[in-house]
Design a protein that fits this description.
alpha/beta, Rossmann fold, Luciferase, domain 3, GMP Synthetase, Chain A, domain 3, 9-stranded mixed β-sheet, 5-stranded parallel β-sheet, 18 helices, 26 strands, 31% helix, globular, disordered N terminus
Length: 571
Amino acid sequence: MSWNPRPPVLNFGHRLRAFDKNRYNPASSDKPGQLNERIAATMSDLLHQLISHQSMRTPDAMALYFKDRQFSYRELQQQIDAVSCGLLCAGLNRGERVATYLPKVPENVFGLFGAAHAGGVFVPVNPLLKANQVAYILRDCNVRILITSAQRLEQLAAVLEECPDLRAVVIIDDKPRPPAAAATHYDRLGWDSFLSSQRSQSPHPHIDSDMVSILYTSGSTGNPKGVVLSHKNMVTGARSVATYLNNHPDDRLLAALPFSFDYGLSQLTTAFSVGASVALMDYLLPRDIIRSIQRYNITGLAAVPPLWNQLAQLEWPEETARSLRYITNSGGAMPGATTNRLRAALPDTKVFLMYGLTEAFRSTFLPPEQIDQRPDSIGKAIPNAEVLVVRPDGTPCNAGEPGELVHRGSLVAMGYWNDPQKTAERFKPSPGQPTGIPLPETAVWSGDQVRRDEEGYLYFISRLDEMIKTSGYRVSPSEVEEVVYNLQGISQAAALGLPHPMLGQAILLVITTHGTVTAAEVLQHCKKELPNFMVPQQIVILEQMPHNQNGKIDRKHLATEYRDLFKELQA
C-alpha cells in the first residue's frame, strides 16, 4: 500500500464563504440536533477514527486550514496514514510514546493522530518550553520518537543526549542538518523520507480503554505531572462538548490555544467528531485572533480568562460578529465585567462559561441563556459526567454548603504517568457507591471548592490550596478579583494570601492596567466595595502578568516572588 505523502496544496487566495449562523441544513433528512446523534451512533471509539469516519463520509470537506495551506478530510487521512506507517517502520511498538515539539502547524496534527493510528501514545509538548523542560518530559515518559523542526532540534541537541530511550527524531522541514559534534544514539529522519516508506505496516491492535495521550500539566514549583488519557476519555469528551455546543459540519473553529493544553487539543477533537474544520494559528497579539476570525470566517472560539480580558478591550468588526456563533471560556472563572464587554461587542454570539480540569477534561457548562440569571455560575455537569459536591468524608453537601467538587464518569483520566503517590491523592473511590462493589469506581477529587444552589447550579469558590485565611476569615481570591475587574482600566488581577505576623495571611493584589488607573484608585475602589477584611493590604502594578504554559495567570510564581513582602514590612 502506498500513500501520497504531500497532498496538493490548494490556492487559499479566494475569499471563504461567510457563515450564516442562522442557516444550517446538512441534509434534507436531518432535523436540528439529529445529525450529531446519527454520527455518534455510527462512529468508532478510537480517537483517530474520528477522522477516518469523516474521510469516508465527506472526503472532500475541509478539515484543516493553516495560512495558505488547506487539507480535506481525505488529504488529512492520507497524511495520518503516512505518519502511522513511518512510525511503525521506525520501530514504534504498541503503547510507546511519540512527542511533538512544534507550533500549531499541520505536521503537528499529523503527528498526534498518526501516533494514535499506529497504536502509540502521543505527547504534545508546549512549544514555549525550554530545552531542559522538554528533556524532562521526554525522559519522564520514555519518549521513543520525537517530531520537531530543524531549528528546534538545534536547541535540543545537547539535552537529547540525556534521553536514552529516544530512538529517532523526525525533522519536518528537511533543512540541512547542523553539524554533529559527536555521534548521537538516535536516528535523524527527514520528513519526506519518513513518509515515503513503501513497506506495508499494520497498526498495532488497540481498544478504546488503551491510553492514547499523555498531557503534562503546568506548574511553577516541582515537575509537571503527565495525565494519562485513553481513547475513550478523548472520544467521549469530543462528543460531549459537540453536543452542548451543537457543533456541526459547517462550523470552523480557531485553534489558538496550545495542543499540550487539553482545552486547546479539544478544538481538534470536537471539530473532527462532527466533520467540522479547524484553522491553526499561533498568535503574537490578541488582535491577531480577531484578524484570523475574519480571515477564516470562524464560528467558534475558545480562550482562557487572561486572553478574554485582553480581547474584551478591543474593537470587534461587524463581519466578525456575523460569523462567530459562539465563544467558550475555561481554565478559570471569567470576570463578570469581561463577560459583559464581550456580550456587548458580540450581541448575537452565544457565550458558554465552562469549568474543567485536565484529569477529567471538562466537568460543567453554563447554558448561554442562564448568564443573566446566574452570571457567577459554572453551570451543571456536561453530558456523560456526574459532578458531586462533598464534604471531606465523602458525604454530600447541602444546597449552599461549600464542598469539594468530585467528577465521576467516562471522562476520568487513567492517572498520572509513573506517579502512584500523586495518583492516589487525586484519583480516589467515587463517593456514595454501593459497598458491595468489589472494585469501586474511581473519581477525580478536584481540590476545588464549590457550592450548589437549590436548582443544582454550581458556583466556583476557590482551589482549596488557594483560599486566603486572614484575620480569622476565609476569603476566595475570585471574590476580590471580581470586584477589581469592575473598575475601568484593569486588564488582569490576581489576589494572593501571603504570610503576615499579625493577620495570619494578608491579601496582596497584583494587577496590570491598560489605562491611567493608579494603585490608590484601586485601593479606594476596594474599600468602597469590599468589607475591611477583604481589602488588599498592598497593591502591585506590573507591566506584564506572568502566565504559565497554558495561558493562565501563574499564581505560584507570584506567591514565590512576593512571599516575604509583608515580613519585610513588619521588620
